[in-house]
Amino acid sequence: MDLVPRHRTPFQLPGPWPACAQELVRGGFAWLHSGDTGEAFLALPGPVLTSTWGGQAWTTRLGPVPLPHSPWEALAWVLTEGPIPWIGAATFELACDEANLPRKPLENGYLGQHWTAVSEALHVKDGKAELWSWTPHPPDPAAWEARLTPVSGLGRASLRLTPAWNELTHRAAVQRIQERILDGAFYVANLCVPFEGRLEGDPVAFVLSAFRRARPPFGALLDLGGQRLLSLSMERLLARRGDRLWSQPIKGSAPLSGDLEHDRAAAEALAADPKERAEHTMILDLVRNDLGRVAQPGSVQVTRPMAVEPYPTVQHLVSTVEATAKPGLGLVDLLRAVLPGGSITGAPKHAVCSHLAQAEAGPRGFYCGAVGWISPSGDLDLALPIRTAQIRGEHLSYWTGGGITRRSDPTREWEELHLKTRAITG
Fold first, then answer.
1. Would you say 64 and 9 are in contact if contact means Cβ atoms under 8 Å apart?
2. What is the pLDDT of residue 257?
3. Of 2, 105, 134, 149, which sees the most CB atoms within 10 A?
4. CATH number at residue 239
């Protein structure tokens, strides 16, 4: 976590981590979890910025107070009002509207973004804890100790998922995209399908077990009012530190079995697969173009192309694209240039989004939007919420998808959907 607090206070955890944090999870604390560095960041909830769909336009509020701005403009405005960072998420549909892209119709009251101001947080890494604060006063350890529970164990939970459509429907949707590609409408389209399920047992145990099992580089659990967002993402959508910008698109997948020889062979096959490389190259070009709109001329470069990276259940092709921001680049222009992410739309974006608005089963919601933190300095780290569940009570919705090219095999695409559910079902 590159967030820089005003105060750091060493803190003794009252019990084993993360079991002692169960009450914070139940209490709606915003949790960012990085499986690759072993970091956890739990933020004390503060003022909330939301945008909801009103039928004709988005209505944005800071608490109960309406703001006369577009959603991205309102987010940029609240960042100027104080020295504290904000943690939250935005939906795919809101990102489409801000970028003037087609999307699914929405019901009135649909939540488009939810951001929480962070004045204090608990930071844990390698079993060592600190209390962080962005206020003039250091945090109170006694208050934080009262929020934690010295328990050693977790409850149990289970989940079974069912796709919104069957293999025949998915095959037809894939073939229709391939027909559009042959007609010259677009080059690659990312087709996504929701899976629905009932979460039984202790939801907190489910969340903590999911973090432990998936070890997501960009994990998050956010309380969004009437729903929870659980993201087990491994894809960095957009990061900024000063004038440095970068994105790490993912395209190309292969199962990870745990058998070293088998997985090594699968990684080599993935890296050499013409279909996967072609799909990845098209998305890579799109991301380079998006960053190029807000970068200094000649600064966009691919610093790490098509690396095979393993995760607990799957291997992916991942590239890193970097650029230097134009002088004076603001948050609104940056978000409108990059969101929604190219790896979960396709190329060109407008034509693909127009097709997906007709082809997919419903609005994606926070899946494929953005999740992470933004600081008043303009620094940010936003993940692409793939491997992401939206939870309302016992009902859980989990979308998954894949890029479709003219070389795609509909059977393999259907199998890939189910492979990607393993991140949350185990």
1. no
2. 81
3. 134
4. 3.60.120.10
